[in-house]
Amino acid sequence: MINVMLVDDHAILRDGLRYILDRETDIRLMAEAASGEEMVEKLESLQEKPDVIIMDISLPGMDGLEATGYVKRKYKGIKVLILTVSNHDDSLMRALAKGADGYLLKESPAAELIEAIRTVAKGESILHPSLTKKLFQYHRQGENKDMGLTQREKEVLLCLVQGLSNKEIARKLFISDKTVKIHVSRIFKKLNVKNRAQAVINAVKYDLVDLPQSKPVRKTKR
User: Fold this and answer.
1) Alpha helices of the chain — where are they, by DSSP H?
2) Can you tell me the mean pLDDT for 92-117?
3) Distance (Å, whole) CA 215 – CA 51
4) Buried b (16+ CB within 10 A) or exposed e, 94-109
5) Cβ(121)–Cβ(101) under 8 Å?
6) pTM confidence score
């Protein structure tokens, strides 16, 4: 069972999402909050913490980006799925930098939201397809920084950008799953990141790989 907390200041939207989530046998909406401050209070009082928090960005007081940063600092195991109307480059990059595990637009179909919840709960990250181009076109800082990556690590990093899982990377590069994990760990250390979403950001920001513009980032696995 995936325990979910919903943080959004619009009651009508919460009602609609509650109806959608209640139809799923493997997802339980355990708590709701209308602001970042209320989310903090409920998280502190809940004995059982949620597995996934669905977070809006535009919240009164503590906004969703600040709230995401709080959750990621204090509750390492909780996944945060941003669900917002904002498709601005700055909001996307700031959310991912804060540690968000996924970023969906409210225009997404219900089935896509359900799949996103299951995806982030498994430790993977997901990005709304229409935002992939924005991620690729984000202003890069620096010029083709090497960051100490070996050629093989750059190949693995490109696979991360393409959204491949460890098994898919192993098959594509003809190496073992264990070797993939070693490369991913070394990439994280050299890029000073904690998860694959942040590694992808750095790959784009520092022009570390030749990005395949025609292939969107589906999801990445931690």
Assistant:
1) 11-22, 36-45, 64-74, 89-97, 110-121, 132-137, 151-161, 166-173, 177-191, 196-205
2) 88
3) 30
4) bbbebbbbbbbbeeee
5) no
6) 0.68
